[in-house]
Amino acid sequence: MAFNDHRDFFQVLEREGELARISREVSWDLEVGAIGRRTYERQGPCLLFENIKDYPQGFRISNGTTGTWSRVALALGLPKDTSVREIYRVYEEKLEKKLPPNTLTRNNAPCKENIMLGDDVNLYKFPSPMIHEGDGGRYIGTWDAVICKDPITGWTNWGMYRFMVHTKNWLTGWPQSTSQLAMIFKEKYLPKNEPMPIAIVIGADPISHIMATHPFRPQDNEAEHAGGMRGKPMDLVRCETSDLMVPAHAEIVIEGHLMPDKIAPDGPFGEYPGYRSGTMCDGVAVKVSAVTYRNDPILTMIALGTPPDDSSIAASMSAGIAMKQGLLRHGIPVTDVYVPPEGVTHLIIVGVKKGGTEVARRVLDYFTARRVMTNKHIVVDEDVDVFNMAEVLHAFATRCHPGTGIAYEWYEGRSNSLTPFYSPDERSKLKGVSVVFDSTWPPSWPREIIPIKASFKTIYSPEVQEKVVNNWQKYGLK
Fold first, then answer.
1. How far apart are CA 33 and CA 28, in angstroms?
2. CATH number for the domain including 412?
3. In angstroms, rounded to a whole number, what is the distance separating the alpha carbons of residues 182 and 46?
4. Residue 138 pLDDT
5. 340 in Cβ contact with 410 (< 8 Å)
6. Is the preceding peptide bond at 206 cis, omega within 30 degrees of 0?
7. Any residues with CB less than 8 A from the CB of 16 and at least 6 apart, and which?
């Protein structure tokens, strides 16, 4: 099923018992954030706050649209109890399909029901939440899709970055310096001292937001992939003050220009690794030129923090698939790649057909070749289910040789500055280190000396396994 928008998906969530409507008045100042964070930590439902203090009826906030694997499954058109392995498989399969988007006229685009231009722009019209204690301000952009374009090639990029309300018509944000948005800005706009048009899309359909987290290669088109993933072309519409194309069914679209000659304070903020990130810093400054929005708009929020939440789950899936495909392109014999949400993309599990220190080193080299967003990698044999962390932990504990099975790579200028254990000096220099734990049996060992794993799948014959499985309910077991 293809969801045109946030609201279509809410109908399914409500039917499946995955949506809680909160009609009691709640404050945008910390209360909605605290409720959202506690709900994540209790594996609770998607929330729709329908009565926000200081704001008229109809202005709403949602939290946790795809904050559990069950809701990711529903977004992909799967049953809510689909396994994580199957979700990965379907996502990877659908990622190969691309559909060119449709273009809607302004009159047919729901996101154009209300339009603020120029001096009429007022970001305070929307209930942007103060999500965490200690945040630098009210963040309107957390679960968003930020759209920009390469002015030379015409390539349009979608990404997900935080944006804070600075004044009624200015935003400040912090896209990492290694992000594609930052690269386009630094390479194509800054040298000419030109402002870069961007559009911040809030409350699109669930697939569009997931696509904004996917690490596509440059020149790849997220809108086409979103159409393929949905099985239905995206409906796009042109912005009011630039030629950027945005999802026509979005709840809110903020148009603006990232300025080459201005900075503004941003943060701190409780970021995706699960920690408040540093102190207030110099962020990018965005002059807002227009805001278009639907009647009774829904502002999408994610109360980021310790996993799971929308960010850790969507990023883990999109990163895992992209990493698997990249490793295969580099000739590494990968079976599966899993990025556990609890590891907030700092921990990667790589399954290989044939292991050993050489293969583990090639895995590490792949992950440290360019910008480095990960730092801990566990390589396991194909008999280990990478999606089963109990099996992964067992392999790590029993197969990784502390003296010969661990390799490091140091680098500077391309690390992830949101990695909590880096010092302030390391973060400022983008200096980091990555490690690989070879948790595979040495390929030089003959089969007869490899210890036999005492699990149901490995120590019993197929005949015994089949007999037990077939008689399971007859034993009185569920």
1. 8
2. 3.40.1670.10
3. 31
4. 97
5. no
6. no
7. 70, 74, 80
Instruction: Evaluate whether 90 touches 75 at the Cβ level (below 8 Å).
Output: no
Element (H, E) at 71: helix 69-75
Look at the pTM and tell me if it is higher than 0.85.
yes
Is 270:305 a contact under the CB 8 Å cutoff? yes
DSSP annotation of 388 reads -
Domain span at 193: 85-301
Q: Are 292 and 434 contained in the same domain? A: no
Secondary structure (3-state) at 191: helix
Confirm whether 39 is domain-assigned: no
Q: Specify whether 147 is located in the same domain as 242.
A: yes
Measured CA angle at 32 (ends 28, 38), to 5 deg = 160
Nearest to 322, CA basis, from 352, 358, 268, 367: 367
- Output b/e per residue, 154-176; b: 16+ Cβ within 10 A: eebbbbbbbbbbbeebbbbbbbb
Query: What is the pLDDT at residue 331?
Result: 96
Q: What CA–CA distance (Å, rounded) separates 421 from 64?
A: 27
Residues belonging to the chain:
478
Into how many domains does the chain fold? 2
Q: What is the pLDDT of residue 372?
A: 84
- Which tens digits make up the pLDDT trace of 30-65? 999 999 999 999 999 999 999 999 999 999 999 999
Q: Which of 174, 150, 147 is nearest to 163 (CA)?
A: 174
Low-confidence stretches of the chain (pLDDT beneath 70): 1, 178, 277-280
142 and 44 Cβ atoms separated by less than 8 Å: no
Which residue in the block uniquely carries the two structure tokens 């339009």? Answer: 115
Q: Which H or E run contains 266?
A: strand 252-266
Q: Which residue has the tokens 């072309």?
A: 233
Instruction: Of 165, 281, 290, give the one whose Cα is nearest residue 237.
Output: 290
137 & 186 share domain: yes
What is the C-alpha separation between 297 and 124, in angstroms, rounded?
14
Task: Give the residue ranges of DSSP H helices in 202-309.
Answer: 206-213, 222-230
Asked if the structure places residue 33 within a domain, the reply is: no
- Does residue 216 share a domain with residue 270? yes
- The pLDDT assigned to 279 comes to 62
How do residues 178-197 score in pLDDT, each as one tens digit? 688 989 999 999 999 999 99
Position 14 in a domain:
no
> Which tokens sit at 327?
């490793």
Q: pLDDT at position 280, please?
A: 66
